[in-house]
Every structure is written in C-alpha cells, then in structure tokens.
Amino acid sequence: MEHKTRTLSFRNCLLFFTFQVVVAFFLFSALFQVKHGNDQTEPIDVTSKPEEPAKIILLWTWPFGYTFPLNKCPSQFDGTGCFFTANRSLYSEAAAVVLHSRDVCSSRNQLPQAPRPPKQYWVWFTLESPSHNPNTAFMEKLINLTMSYRADSDIFTPYGWLERHDGKENFTMPAKTKLVAWVVSNWNPNSRRIKYYEELKPHLAVDIYGLQHLPLPRPKHIEILSQYKFYLAFENSIHEDYITEKLWHNALSSWALPVVLGPSRSNYERFLPPESFIHVDDFPTAKGLADYLNELDKDDNKYMQHFNWRKHLKPVAPESWNPHYCKVCKAIKDAPSYRTFPSITNWFK
C-alpha cells in the first residue's frame, strides 16, 4: 500500500512538472510574438550593420546673417542622409563646410582655422557676380566644390528656373493698368543700366521703385508689380549666367514681360523661351525699344504672344536660401573623386 502511494505521488509530480513545462512554453511563445510580431517567416539578420551616420554639412556663416529652418529641404531636393547645422563645434565631424563668399572675403582669418579633417569638402558659395565678389585670391587651392548661379558650377544654384506642367493650370493674366516698372536701389550713374535708362526715359514713362524712389513694401511687392505690363530687369553687372531675381521674381512672378539688360540673348535663351523676354540688344537704340513697348501696349494680341510659353511651363523663384543649401547634400553624396579647385579667381570672372 505504501509502495502504491509513493508511485501515485511520483506520477502526480511528473504530470505537474510536465504541465508546467508546457504552460511555460506557450507563455514564452506568446510573449515572443507580442514583442517581435506574429510573422516569423523573415529570419532575423544578426549580422546587419547599423545605418550609415548622416553626413554633417556645416554652414560656416548664415548668408548675410539671414537665418532659416535647417533640415527641412523641399521635396524636389533630397536631403536624406545629411544633417545641416550652423554649430561650428561640429567642424571636425563635418563632411562639408559651406563658405558663403561675401561673409568670409575680408580676411583669411574668417575661414576655418583648425586643421582640416581628411577629405572634408570646402564649398565656395556665392549668388553675387564677379563684380561684387572681392578677395578670392586667398582661397586659391582651398576649395573643393563651387556653388553658384553659374551653370558650370559643381552645384548649380540659379535664381530661378522653369518647370513643366500638364497644361491644365489656369492661364490667368493679372489686370494690367500701368505700363513699365523698375525696382532699383543701387543708383550708380556710371553703370550701364543707369546710362541706358537715361537714354530711354525721354521716350518711355517708367515708374521707379526702391531707395530714394517710390516705396515698395515687401508684403505688397508682387501685388504692386503685377499692375504693370513690362518690367525692366536690368542687372547691376554683366556676366555669364548672371540672371537674377530681377527677372525670376520681380518680372515673371508678377506676370510682367521682362525687358532685360544683362548677358547676351543667347545666354538668356539657355534658360528661357526666346519669346518670354525682350532684350535691349534687339534694338539699335533705346528709342527703338520704347517704340516697340508702346506698340505692344496698343496691341493686346501681340502682347499676349509673349506669354504662350506659360501654357506648358511655369517659373519658380525660391524666396529662401534653404533650397540652395539643400542641394549640397546630393552633391556631397554624388561627388567625384576628391580634388581641390586650383583657382576661384581665374574661373569666376
């Protein structure tokens, strides 16, 4: 009897132990599925490496002191894999340092003074023309990538560009009640644009806005200029590809027909349809230009022919520095073999 009792006790213990093992197995399986998901068809790759760290792009200075949100690149500019910062303490970790020329041009001491980390890119950035970019000589053999409005830059950052649309956008011209507008603040009597205006004004009425002229509040900039049929997009200096906000923003964004004074017509036509602007060089005299503008003013059909291109294209003129800097990310990731630019001075002239 005692032996039989011990046998039953042993069997009960064995059954209880087996039950505990089974329960523990199912509990562990349930917990594992909660933590890792129910789909266990994909094996866990224990050999996978962590993602490559972001490339740090350091803005050595804010351009002209203007600040803007970093790491918020527009969708058309891929900023993934990069981290933008203005924190100079990250200099030694930066893959690239963007040097805005006008903010560092007064002295070599305004450039980074610490030893450069191996293969770090120094990016020379400007939107100003050679006439307004002094003291580039001390940057010789220091720059790795160029970034400017010039089409042959390593990083092309124009003042504006055209984008194709599907033709379904409304083609609506703002009401035009005035003739010619011009915004100018740097009034240099010896410049070509002022001299040309002096020849033009006896034959054409022009409303001038800017310093010492008519006021142009920034919030109403486009609203005011949209009243005009024509806009004088006269550049402050004449250089290859130097086509600025005077055309892209002041004229095209306000639906005014730009009258341009700058590089050659063929240079403009690299970026714009031939009929989208009027070039002063198309006329032997300023009076000839004035006569043509007055003729267009009286002929709406002929005037509107200069806007046919808008049925398929639209101008884009960024009003922030952000899109320009965002382009550095892709350029650094796609950069060719590391090299040093021999001479900014000889190239940018």
UniProtKB/TrEMBL annotation:
GO terms for cellular component: Golgi cisterna membrane. Residues 54-160 form the Fucosyltransferase N-terminal domain. Its EC number is 2.4.1.-. Belongs to the glycosyltransferase 10 family. The lineage of its organism: Eukaryota, Metazoa, Chordata, Craniata, Vertebrata. It holds the Pfam family Glyco_tran_10_N. Its main location: Golgi. It catalyses: an N-acetyl-alpha-neuraminyl-(2->3)-beta-D-galactosyl-(1->4)-N-acetyl-beta-D-glucosaminyl derivative + GDP-beta-L-fucose = an alpha-Neu5Ac-(2->3)-beta-D-Gal-(1->4)-[alpha-L-Fuc-(1->3)]-beta-D-GlcNAc derivative + GDP + H(+). This is Fucosyltransferase. It is a single-pass type II membrane protein; Single-pass membrane protein. It comes from Xenopus laevis.
